[in-house]
Amino acid sequence: MMDKTVLDKRSKELRKTIVKIFELAGRGHLASALSLVEIVRVLYDHVLKYDPSRPKWIERDRCILSKGHGCLALYALLGEKGFFPEEELWKFCHQEGILGGHPEQTKVPGVEASTGSLGHGLSIGIGFALNGKYEKKDYRTFVILGDGECNEGSIWEGAMSASKHKLDNLVVLVDYNKQQSYNTTFEVQDLEPFAEKWKSFGFATEEVDGHDVEQLKSVLGRLPFEKGKPSAIICHTVKGKGIEFVEGDLKWHHKSNLKDDEIQKLYDALGVD
Fold first, then answer.
1. 143: closest CA among 208, 233, 71?
2. 155-213 pLDDT per residue, tens
3. Domains detected in the chain
4. Rounded to an integer, what distance in angstroms lies between the CA atom of residue 240 and that of residue 48?
């Protein structure tokens, strides 16, 4: 059953930006980005400590999009917040631009780790969190995982390490849209009981509607959930959220090079000017 959470104007406008990037590039993982919008929106609007004029500010919170193919959502927020000029958004995947099909730490201000080869972001985040503890810094590290990505053994090796080191400055958010590149997560490699898995690996774990801004703000405002434990937030989402004919349609994972009338249907479905 599709999620019926009503999207507000800001969520629709961010999706409009993502569609425009997608249109101008002729490519991108559109559906994978749409399920992430509220997660990254709430993080960058209400939670993370950062300074776009100083992207390497030592006291900043670190946010890693381990699900790198969903980068259109991250780029939309980074561009809006001033990490780079807005015009870079319209050069996504162009030779003269800095924004590639997966985030690159050496090229894009605000990107903390080069991701796209799934399963590595959590281990990088654990390194950041360990360093924060060692240097007695109060910054936090947030890692956004895809649910299909959680098939990777490296995720669970990292989870054991995070628990061992009592990294209560580490937060995992899983974009649990229940689909991956070629089928549902239930058919490919069932993750359930998902919350219980994270709890059994030593994470204090909460579940939330990943498209409900107020729920996200509330749960993220209670971090860490338990002293001495890393936190996991399972965000129940819909792949392609906000564009009804894209929602839950597996064909949209790789769909690109759309015709003009197909692009117009995307804009029309969002209902924004």
1. 233
2. 999 999 999 999 999 999 999 999 988 889 999 999 999 999 999 999 999 999 999 99
3. 9-270 (3.40.50.970)
4. 25
